[in-house]
């Protein structure tokens, strides 16, 4: 039984959740977790399935437990712009806001821990730990949005690929409570087509840059989805960043 199936079929309790230390409930104590358990449910979205449409009223909000979702906006002429990724522990939806500003689509099979919105809003009002955590997550999202602007606006194709790999590596390490060390291995939960769409590149460019990073020993490709980074500082150099910052977790 894989993680996604285990989560959905067993309906695990909040205190046992694999993203508990990073999710919206991270600051909650046992009594608050009991209240969250009472209003939550799990749902699986297949790759390509829409979780939320832009402008659509959504009565459910919650956290990504596993998988990856994309944030995008469709322009009047039909063009689509991706504006970010949602990784495990990221929050979908906003208390107090009726409609979603973006399309949220599962880029890889996604398991969501969902809360009934009205009940969650009421719980936030009476639970300082939830309110505090939501504020922290909002500030983290702002940092990620600024990094996204830099990623799309000023970085080369090579820097974009290296940056995306570094972001995913760091998030994987944080979720698994591991240090970011040389030799770190992690799964890339995106196809090359999805990476190209996300970074504003062609699939050919993505493949060429990944091959170049592999040839130069900056990354090792264990298989089609798993990467090993022999020297993380070198990867950050290729991303145009450094080990002191510039890359959101």
Quick gist of this model?
The chain is α+β, with helices and mostly antiparallel strands and 249 residues long.
What this model shows, in words?
By secondary structure, the protein is an alpha+beta fold. The chain starts with a helix and ends in a 10-residue tail after the last helix. Helix 5 packs across helix 7, helix 5 packs across helix 8 and helix 6 crosses helix 7. The strands form three sheets. Strands 1-8-3-6 form a four-stranded antiparallel sheet. Strands 2-7-4-5 form a four-stranded antiparallel sheet. Strands 9-11-10 form a three-stranded antiparallel sheet, covered by helices on one side. The protein contains eight helices and eleven strands. It folds into two domains: 148 residues, Jelly Rolls; 84 residues, Orthogonal Bundle (Arc Repressor Mutant, subunit A), CATH 1.10.10.10.
Give me the secondary-structure topology:
Blueprint: H1 3-10, H2 30-39, E1 40-45, E2 50-52, E3 60-66, E4 69-74, E5 80-86, E6 91-92, E7 103-106, E8 110-116, H3 117-126, H4 128-153, H5 157-175, E9 184-187, H6 192-199, H7 203-215, E10 220-221, E11 226-229, H8 232-239
Antiparallel strand pairs: 1-8, 2-7, 3-6, 3-8, 4-5, 4-7, 9-11, 10-11
Helix pairs in contact: 3-4, 5-7, 5-8, 6-7
């Amino acid at each position: 039984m894989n993680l996604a199936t285990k989560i959905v079929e067993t309906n695990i309790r909040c205190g046992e959740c694999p993203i508990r230390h990073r999710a919206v409930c991270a600051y909650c104590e046992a009594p608050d977790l009991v209240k969250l358990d009472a209003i939550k449910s799990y749902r699986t979205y297949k790759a390509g399935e829409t979780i939320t449409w832009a402008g659509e009223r959504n009565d459910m909000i919650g956290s990504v437990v596993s998988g990856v979702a994309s944030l995008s906006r469709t322009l009047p002429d039909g063009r689509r712009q991706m504006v970010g990724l949602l990784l495990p522990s990221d929050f979908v939806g906003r208390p107090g806001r009726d409609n979603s500003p973006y399309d949220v689509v599962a880029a890889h099979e996604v398991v969501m821990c969902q809360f009934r919105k009205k009940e969650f809003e009421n719980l936030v009002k009476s639970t300082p730990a939830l309110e505090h955590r939501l504020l922290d997550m909002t500030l983290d999202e702002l940092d990620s949005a600024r990094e996204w602007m830099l990623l799309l606006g000023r970085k080369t194709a090579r820097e974009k690929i290296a940056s995306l790999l570094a972001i995913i590596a760091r998030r994987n390490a944080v979720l698994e409570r591991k240090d970011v060390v040389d030799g770190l291995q992690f799964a890339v939960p995106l196809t090359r087509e999805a990476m190209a769409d996300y970074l504003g590149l062609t699939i050919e460019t993505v493949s060429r840059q990944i091959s170049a990073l592999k040839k130069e020993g900056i990354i090792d490709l264990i298989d089609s989805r798993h990467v090993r980074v022999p020297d993380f500082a070198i990867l950050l150099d290729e991303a145009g960043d450094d080990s002191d910052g510039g890359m959101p977790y």
